[in-house]
Amino acid sequence: MKSLSNFGLSLLVIALIATIGCSQQRSEESPVKGLVNATGNSDSETPRSQLLLNAVYGPGDPYRCYCPNNSIRSLSGKTQDSSNLSKSQNRYGECPRSPQEDIPDEITRNSKLWPLPNRDYESTRAIFESDISQSTVGRLAIAWKFRLPEVTNWGAAASNPLVMDGIVYFQDLPSNIFALDLDDGDLLWTRKGEGRSIAPNGLAVGYGKVFAAPSASGFFALDSSTGKVIWRADIQLTDTEGIDIQPIVYDGLVYLSTAPRSKKGLYVGNGEGIIYALDESTGCIVWGFNTVDSEDIWGNREVNSGGGAWFPTSVDTTRDVTYWGIGNPGPWPGTEEYPNGSSRPGPNLYTDSILALDSKSGELLWYRQVRPHDLFDLDFHVSPVLVSADIDGSERDVVIGAGKTGTVHAFDAETGHEFWVTKVGIHQNDHIEEIPDGEEIEVYPGSLGGVETFMSYADGMVYVPVINLPTTYTSSTKKMESLNGTGSVIAIEVDSGRINWETEFEEIVVGSTTVVNDLVFTSVFSGKVYAMNRTSGEIVWSFQADAGINAPLAVAKNTLLIPSGMPQEEGNSPGIIALRLVD
Questions:
Q1: What count of other Cβ atoms lies within 10 Å of the Cβ of residue 115?
Q2: C-alpha span between 507 and 381 (Å, rounded)
Q3: What per-residue confidence (pLDDT) applies to 80?
Q4: Per-residue pLDDT tens for 97-126?
Q5: What pairing do the DSSP bridges indicate for beta strands 385-391 and 353-358?
Q6: pLDDT tens digit string along 16-70?
Q7: Nearest Cα residue to 208 out of 282, 280, 160, 121
Q8: Residue 93, by phi and psi: left (phi above 0), alpha (psi -120 to 50) or beta?
Q9: Could you tell me if 463 and 422 are in contact, meaning their C-beta atoms sit under 8 angstroms apart?
């Protein structure tokens, strides 16, 4: 791996933890849990009923929607819905719903650009409406640079730019929001952040609005033309929870999640990850789903935390189903008082799982847990990729999931049945379910390893970015010996799970993968961007950015947008770089 300065190493530790604070793992010795039916029940579980959420306007702030009877966190592992409230239950009247339906006009008319975090609702991260290809990539040159004005302890950039109607929308880690001209990078408007994000953030754009978390403790909607605040959502958080996700907008709703991360730290206790669907016109909570299926957080609310989604949902717009990758339980591997996660006995549902939720109601349709009782911070967090595959001679709708487990899985989109699972990267001791007292073990993938960032898909192949980086554990402690990891990009056939090719790197791969015609792009932490032949994996082009890269790129027409926000040396300049084809 390329040598990094102490400055760069310290930033990398914090940035990767902040940017990808999720985890999950499946071992051959641990059974896969939780194929559920349409009621969200696994095997002999008692039925879960739809419970009500009162999310309504109240007196006071005209930009805020109030939820006077909001008790989502007491409804662990269940969905709350605001749709059928009686007058006695709702002292202000029903939560108003947006008349908007289906896909926002902005996303439809910009479908050939980059209107969503992973370009489309299926999260394929593939674009074919560009002249960038193997024969032209050598003609990419810098068109403009936009300097990001602030750098946090976690760098300056971790989210995916959006490109719509000739405008680049971007949020940096200090939570500042920028609207830039795609042609020349000129600043059209900006909105200053209200608090630094301590994990992934980012924007959604639709219905004439920009949706974002101005800090880890709030969420609002801005006018997409001016940046002025339209509404603020009233989302209840404990002091150990935060909003750290790039949202998605669909069918009049804005989808986001909380996670157990705040200024107090990561998974420090009393933190639950809750998925929310907000009304796009008011910010009212339409439904919420608590990803912790336990009233007392598996027996010890003071010590335990878990769940939540760190990365955007994927949406099947035909079925009206959202698919979510869910983070790990904590503490991991345990504490001196509670070694080996003994403060949280059992599988710790719905951590390290993939969830299928009805997009309109939040009803749990099915789930699969791939890592019960995770000890090693191995989230199953990456945005699922929705594809069609030929499974044993039959065309099936398939959901591809992955995470820090270092495993890639194919599930039936309708039922959650697992078709195949493929291990990627180095695996060592990750099958262990209990660490003996006094022993120390090295585990691959470590807590910053496996599949950390977004996959991409095209023509029957999913392209997976992999990190090989270990963590050393005892039954109650963890430490990373070094950041001198390696990485690779692996092409996997979605029909069978067979690995087609692998391209290895001497650095960790933290920039996701992106398909552009016959190329696959990725980047490594030192700031180098690579383009590979999509058929063979051969590297055909590279570019060195001004700073390290810890964010995915976007493509719009003949422009490649690179957020480079991780200064590894004093004087590095974080920003957004636009490369464009020249004659």
A1: 27
A2: 22
A3: 63
A4: 666 668 999 999 999 999 999 999 999 999
A5: unpaired
A6: 544 444 333 323 222 222 222 222 333 322 222 222 232 222 333 444 454 444 4
A7: 280
A8: left
A9: no
From the list 555, 562, 578, the residue with the least C-alpha distance to 163 is: 555
Give the Cβ contact number of residue 28 at 10 Å. Answer: 9
Interacting residues of 8 by C-beta distance below 8 A, sequence separation 6+: 548, 566, 567, 568, 569
CATH architecture of structural domain 6-387+397-581: 8 Propeller (2.140)
74 three-class SS:
helix
User: What mean pLDDT do residues 209-228 have?
Assistant: 96
CB atoms within 10 A of CB 498: 11
Q: Do residues 522 and 514 touch, judged by C-beta distance below 8 A?
A: yes
Cβ neighbours, 10 Å, residue 505: 24
pTM equals 0.88
Tell me whether residue 519 is exposed, middle or buried, using C-beta atoms within 10 angstroms of its C-beta: 0 to 12, 13 to 18, 19 or more.
buried
User: Contact, 557 vs 130, CB < 8 A?
Assistant: yes
The CA distance from 65 to 221, in Å, is 12
DSSP state of 515: E
Rg of the chain on CA atoms, in Å: 22
The answer to whether residues 6 and 331 touch, using CB atoms and an 8 Å cutoff, is no
Determine the residue type at 550: N
Enter the tokens of residue 122: 């299926």
Which residue intervals of 405-476 are DSSP H helices? none
What distance in Å separates the CA atoms of residue 379 and residue 22, rounded to the nearest whole number? 4
Whether the Cβ atoms of residue 189 and residue 208 lie closer than 8 Å to each other: no
Euclidean distance between CA atoms 459 and 132, whole angstroms:
18
What mean pLDDT is reported for the chain? 86
C-alpha span between 94 and 545 (Å, rounded): 51
Q: Which two tokens stand for residue 414?
A: 């309708």
Quick check: bond before 331 cis, omega within 30?
yes
User: How far is the C-alpha of 485 from the C-alpha of 41, rounded, in Å?
Assistant: 41
User: Which one, of 319, 344, 317, lies nearest residue 331 by Cα?
Assistant: 344
Residues 6 or more apart whose CB falls under 8 angstroms from that of 394 comprise: none
Q: Where are the domains of the chain?
A: 6-387+397-581
> Does 552 sit behind a cis peptide bond, omega within 30 degrees of 0 on the bond before it?
no
Residue with tokens 């599949």: 451
